[in-house]
Amino acid sequence: MNFKILASGIPIAVFFGLSQVASPWIAIVGGFSASSLVYYATRRDRLVGEIAAFAFACVAVTALVGIVANSEKAYLASGPVSDFLFVPWYLGSVLLGRPLVGGIARELAPALAMKVPLQAPVFAWLSVAWAGFDTIHGTMRVYLLTHLSVGEYIVWSRLIGWPITGALLATSAFFIWRAARSLNRGQATQQRPVSDALPEYAA
């Protein structure tokens, strides 16, 4: 399993463990400290690094609010808050002609994504799709956070959210791969010699 995927679950595990034996502010400090260590251990440069820093900033703000209010749920609100804040980022990137999904794909899978122009329609509509997903995902998490206990929220938000996120990631990868293959075929056809493109007739 990828270390970064495994490490992403450490802060919430630390937070939940401490919440069972200590006061809310201690659990929040523990969870945020673990988030800080994971962020610095897995941080990277460029766009993906900026996205990670943005998400970490959301955690920092909600951790501060949670400590001041002595509220575990205020700390956990970093999830839906980041979901909603990513929506204008996705949509704004499309309007600016630099779809966010295109930039992320070029950093995470350059061998594939670099074959597709950044302005390609596939990156634009995938960015819109992710904006829609984050809107629904954030709304779902707000509902669960409001109606469930802390432990129930941690479990159910992941049981519901992770499979859908995984499916959307796989779908995005498929359509980017298909766009790259289609462009490769088009370029190959254009580069074929005229004698190869025309049918041969017997004399």
**Helix/strand-derived class?**
mainly alpha
Mean pLDDT score: 87
- The total beta strand count reads 0
Order of helices and strands: HHHHHHHHHHH
Major pleated sheet: none
Low-confidence regions: 197-203
Shape: elongated
Proportion of strand residues: under 5%
Q: CA-to-CA gap between the ends? A: 63 Å
Helix content: over 70%
Gyration radius (Cα, Å) is 22 Å
* Count of DSSP H/I helices: 11
Please give a quick description of this structure.
Helices cover 82% and strands 0% of the residues.
Structure description:
- The protein has 203 residues and is mainly α.
- The protein is built from 11 helices and no strands.
- Helix 2 (10-19) packs antiparallel against helix 3 (24-42), helix 3 packs antiparallel against helix 4 and helix 4 (46-69) packs antiparallel against helix 6 (78-95).
- The chain is elongated.
- The chain has helices at residues 3-7, 10-19, 24-42, 46-69, 72-76, 78-95, 100-108, 110-113, 121-147, 150-191, 194-197.
What's the topology here?
Elements: H1 3-7, H2 10-19, H3 24-42, H4 46-69, H5 72-76, H6 78-95, H7 100-108, H8 110-113, H9 121-147, H10 150-191, H11 194-197
Helix pairs in contact: 2-3, 3-4, 4-6, 6-9, 9-10
Keywords, please?
mainly alpha, 11 helices
